[in-house]
Amino acid sequence: MRTWMRTKQGEDEAVQLAREKEESEGNALSIKKCISVLNTLEVTKEEKAKSFKLFKDPDNRQIFLSACDDDPEVALLWLRSEIA
User: Which residue stretches belong to region Disordered (predicted)?
Assistant: First the structure.
């Protein structure tokens, strides 16, 4: 029983640490930040609305924000290809 309790406690702590890490990283890759950056680009309202669904995925947010930092035109091309 004690071994199970220690294992369960360790798993709970690992999950909590993972959540905290995700939250701290998530602030830099938040949907709100993506929308803020998106507002600086020339997109239609339709493209903007479709982008919201795309931004639900953390990998897509990271790609979009990283690409915008590097080359906003390429980021826009990528975004358009993903929402097409």
Answer: 1-20
